[in-house]
Design a protein that fits this description.
By secondary structure, the protein is α+β, with helices and mostly antiparallel strands. It folds into three domains: 87 residues, OB fold (Dihydrolipoamide Acetyltransferase, E2P); 67 residues, no CATH class; 221 residues, Chloramphenicol Acetyltransferase, CATH 3.30.559. Helix content is 27%, strand content 28%. Strands 12, 15, 16, 17, 18, 19, 20 and 21 form an eight-stranded mixed beta sheet that branches. A four-stranded antiparallel beta sheet has the order 1-8-6-3, with no helix packed on it. A hairpin with a 4-residue loop joins β10 and β11. The relative contact order is 0.11. About 6% of the residues have low confidence.
């Protein structure tokens, strides 16, 4: 009995994906629920597993192919050994192609081109690929040890690599360009003295972690401060839809994090109802899901405002880009000691630059500046967050 393995439903408004990785070869045995394919959409990475025990008899796709919901990915024979049918070369690695019907190996286009252009003898090249096959790297390495008849060294081709953009990267590029083309983006800056928050964190971080089983970071303070500022300046939490302004009386905060697939923005739901411990715990869980490629469509949709922390990568100052249809994004940056004048005296303080990029179509400059100043006040005196003042 044969079974068709198809592209599953990919989530709301997502109809297409690309083949990120194929884990099984033709003729290989699989167990029920064993991973066969990894699909990448513009939002998440999905796994396709074997529906039962059996063997892979056909692969209908290669890594990098685009597929749609319902497309056939593979044919598997249930139970006993499968009859191997191969309708296209099976890519065993990114350098070598093997045709299974006669077990003959061929140079892939990349090393073949280098060998031909540089008059190399393939039989004298030591292959480091699977079963001793010649890879592109082997061919390039042999050039440095070769000379032509007139003793002139052979000049290697410039090393370039063409890699297809992942679907996530394509979508990020599309949305960022859409943001620039649609919104009237301005950025206002301020700086915040992190002394009080750092002292508070240093004093209570061990007790906090012991009680809540979660580390106390700075992001929870900024989330709380942001929600307070959003309530006071509601335009920053709103969006434009046609000729209307949609004011949102809920506070779902997107927290930008890095992942193996690129930048993703999982959403912290109902942030106004969470305490510091709950915020830290939820952010840690979302970050882990992002690193493990386990984020779902609901995890990534519906944010009303975004916070991006470029400081974790060492960024001192930047102008973040709005994530449409949102109207604002807060950029946090690296904490750096600087000399500040305080009450007429020069003091060394741990300072952080803050940036608010906003859509000037809906948010006036006064509102943007007031919003950022409010966050500065709350971070510099975190007692205000506790007392709600």
């Amino acid at each position: 009995m044969t079974i068709e393995i198809k592209v599953p439903a990919l989530g709301e408004s997502v109809s297409e994906a690309s083949i990120a990785k194929i884990y099984k070869k033709i003729g290989e045995a699989v167990k029920a629920d064993e991973l066969i394919f990894e699909l990448e959409t513009d939002k998440v990475t999905l796994e396709v597993n074997a529906p039962s025990n059996g063997n892979i008899s056909q692969l209908k796709v290669n890594e990098g192919d685009s597929v749609k919901v319902g497309d056939i990915l593979a044919i598997m024979s249930q139970g006993g050994s499968a009859v191997v049918e191969q309708t296209k070369p099976a890519i065993l690695d990114d350098k070598i192609v093997v045709v299974s019907n006669n077990n003959a190996s061929f140079l892939s286009p990349a090393p073949k081109k280098i060998i031909a252009e540089n008059n190399l003898d393939a039989s004298k090249i030591n292959g480091t690929g699977k079963d001793g096959r010649i890879t592109k790297g082997d061919a390039l390495s042999s050039i440095s040890n070769s000379v032509v008849d007139n003793s002139t060294p052979v000049v290697a081709e410039k090393l370039t690599e063409r890699v297809k953009m992942s679907r996530l990267r394509q979508k990020v590029a599309e949305r960022l360009k859409e943001s620039q083309n649609t919104a009237a983006i301005l950025t206002t800056f301020n700086e915040v003295d992190m002394s009080a928050v750092m002292a508070l964190r240093s004093e209570y971080k061990d007790i906090f972690e012991k009680k809540h089983n979660s580390k106390l970071g700075f992001m929870s303070f900024f989330v709380k401060a942001t929600v307070t500022a959003l309530k006071e300046i509601p335009a920053v939490n709103a969006e434009i839809e046609g000729n209307d302004i949609i004011y949102k009386n809920f506070y779902d905060i997107g927290v930008a994090v890095g992942s193996p697939q690129g930048l993703v923005v999982p959403v912290l739901r109902n942030a106004d109802k969470l305490n510091l411990a709950q915020i830290e715990t939820n952010i840690a869980e979302l970050g882990k899901k992002a690193r493990d490629g386990k984020l779902t469509i609901p995890d990534l949709t519906g944010a009303t405002f975004t916070i991006s922390n470029g400081g974790v990568y060492g960024s001192l100052m930047s102008t973040p880009i709005i994530n449409p249809p949102q109207s604002g994004i807060l950029g946090m940056h690296k904490i750096q000691e600087r000399v500040m004048v305080i009450n007429g005296e020069m003091k060394i303080r741990p300072m952080m630059y803050l940036a608010l990029s906003y859509d000037h179509r809906i948010i006036d400059g006064k509102e943007a500046v007031t919003f950022l100043v409010r966050i500065k006040e709350l971070i510099e005196d975190p007692r205000r967050l506790i007392l709600d003042i």
